[in-house]
TrEMBL record:
Coiled coil: none
Pfam families noted in UniProt: HupH_C
Family: Belongs to the HupH/HyaF family.
Lineage: Bacteria, Pseudomonadati, Pseudomonadota, Gammaproteobacteria, Candidatus Competibacteraceae
Name of the protein in question: HupH hydrogenase expression protein C-terminal domain-containing protein
InterPro entries listed in its UniProt record: HupH_C_sf, HupH_Hydgase_express_prot_C
HupH hydrogenase expression protein C-terminal domain segment(s): 24-137
Amino acid sequence: MPHLSDIPVCVDLNDNKESNLAIAKTVLNEIRALIAQLINSGKTGAIDLRQRPRMRAETYQYLKDALSSGEVTAVVDAAVKVEVRETRYPGVWWLTHLNEQGAIVTEIIEITEIPEILKPHIADMRAGLKRFDQILADFTSHEESPTTLN
């Protein structure tokens, strides 16, 4: 009786390369359509790369090479750390969400003027305004007394 180990297996690396390129090309075509949509209608879009079937490390690398780096990078250090990188295409942003251990949780390509995560929330702005008012109040109270600010 033959065993599974007796069956010859040949891995076609070219097929994998072509498959990775095809997947990358599909994503790049989607990005192109979303850029046109943003320009024509102002509607933003996003592609969650971790939700893509068959997305391999090689495909990610093709995309990273094709999109390259632009002029802007930022790190949001909140409940989840998010690295934001503009690509060399204005309006196309690569966002990498990391867990507490630094492992990638998700990667999103966002097509927008400014990624949502970089925009301040109105509640945060109100809290900041209150802190700002307190600083101004401290200045005012110190101007009225001969002591200096600490």
